[in-house]
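Support request, please re-run this one:
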Amino acid sequence: MASIDDDFAFVTASAERAIARQRQSCEQLCRTTTSKGEGLASHAELMYSAVEDRITETRANFSEAKDDLLRADVVVAMRQLLNLIRGLQPNLDWLAAAISPPLDLGTTYFVEDAARALVAPGVELTIVSGTTQGSYATTTDPWEPYLKQLGSGIPNDEPTIVVVFIPRREEKTGLLHPLIIHELGHAADGEHGLVQQIWAEASTRKRFAKRFTSAVEGFAAAQDGVDQYAARVHVSQLLSSWIAEALCDSIAAHCLGPTYLFSFIAEVVAGSLDEATPTHPPPRQRVRRLLDDLDRLGWAAMMSDEVGELDNWIRDTAEVKIEYQEIDGFLHWAIDDLRAVIRRTARSHVGDALFAPEPEELAEAKELLAAGIPPAQRMSGEAISRASIILSCWFGALSSAGLGPAALPDAVAGPELAEILPAALEMSALTSSWVPTP
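Re-run finished. Output below.
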């Protein structure tokens, strides 16, 4: 008959083997000359050490347990630890992606520079493709929840780790990768508390406070067994999520101009237009807010000149009014009511990364693109900004695709820019960083 000591020995040996294999896999991945993924590898080491400490602690707890009932609880704790270790496997996949990025070099330079500007100078950005994510998504410091679960944490001197997930189907679709800037907005919020800043200003508005209280009371009344405190927490969480999405849209618009709008519509609006979810405002409202930001940044005339037919369709679509009820109605109202606060917060955070219309630069990029030349450098010798490169490629692809609503997916699908866009981004980055020898 099996004893509880045998059970504990078996589960403990399994846990020790699992963490040893994790370490071995991590070490194999890191046997490379590149510095990529150093932050993830460092966080992994913290995790492995914390797990090993917990195994030692659990062994001691088993030895000190006074009866079989307590020992059985310790066996359960060790099984849970084993399952936690096995659940770390995706993080090894992320480390592999950090060491060998799936994106072309030009796009990699572009998004890494954006991460340093928006999140932190020492941030480590990893792009992962082929995950279960249906679209673009992100997570920051992915090891941290596990470390907290083990009673540890990430030291302050460790770099911030940002992991952005992209669908494998879009790995080579350079025109959609501007969506990564939206994801970096979430990391920026986590690093700098941007949504909290918006909340702080919103809470000083009497009308907003009144509507929020009314929404909380309405939600509590509609839900059996939900008290006012729980209702307030729930509504606050919903609104925080919606504000975060609107903020990240605004950050991307300030960094990319119309580029982000085109990428957003091609990827998001095709799948949903008026659906409000617990975490996201309806796409139609987001398009309306993006147009508002772009118009205030001075892009309206250029959008009309370059893609007039498509621009008209986008604006007509955005202006259709949809009525939302109950909690969705409040959230929809709040995002509109806070639009100026959200825009100011985005503009302030973006700082020097702001992308404003540069007609002469875009005209030069357009001329080079028409000649089949990667639009990387101006006649003056200066590098064309990477935001201008991507936008000029979008304008060119949309023009070739016919400028109607179907032009958006057709432009993304077009193979013409598959080599020119990444080459231009890479050449621009090299031109910007090149310093001539005296």
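The beta strands are 124-129, 137-140, 161-166. The chain has three domains: 4-91, 180-353, 359-433.
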